Every structure is written in structure tokens, then in C-alpha cells.
Please model this.
Amino acid sequence: MSKFTTVSNGELVTNNGIPPPVNWTNSYEDMGGDMFWGDGEQLEDEVRGRGIEGDIRPHYGMAPYTGEALYLFEVGSGQFFFFNAIDGSLLRIGGHSDLKSIVDILDDPDQGLPALDIEEV
Model:
């Protein structure tokens, strides 16, 4: 269990105080759990392999019913990334240093993911 999780309504969820955007989940198990987010596991290998240091804090993953394998997480304080587990791409989100502004864009039907400034790492 990650230090960035809590139990809510009997389910282990990410602990950031902001509800997930539409079609995203904060269920830690639906996001891969410790096998994906744990120390020395897949996401840490991907992040460290690109020279990025700091605590990795999971926030959300695309809901299982979407068929997508995209995850939103933070490294350190204020560096936000998407990881696509299908193609292994890691994308840094620029121009935003707080989770709420990113969630607001993802939730806006006139903006969404394409409205974010992202670059591959």
C-alpha cells in the first residue's frame, strides 16, 4: 500500500482530496496497485530510467471500462505526468503545477486532454 493512499467507503483510493475527472478512477487497485506503483515496480522503473527523481504520487488512471491504460501522477511537488502503459510513453504536463487545474481541464468537455501542454520525456 502506498503512503499516498487511504481507505474510502471500504476501497483503497489515492489520497489527494480531488475527485477524479469523468472516465478516470482513483481506485488504487484498478490503477494496478503495488504491482504497478510500488517501490522498484514498473512505474518507478519508467520514471527513474528517464532520470526523474522524487516521490512518485499516483493520482488517477483511466477507468477500466474505457479500455485505456493512461495514468496521471506527480513526481516531487508539482511535476505532473501521464504514463501510457500500452506504448510505454511518459508525457510531462507543462504550464500547470497544481492537480486541480489539470482535473478542471480534463473534466471540461470543450477542452479535455488535447488542451494540456504535454511533451514526451
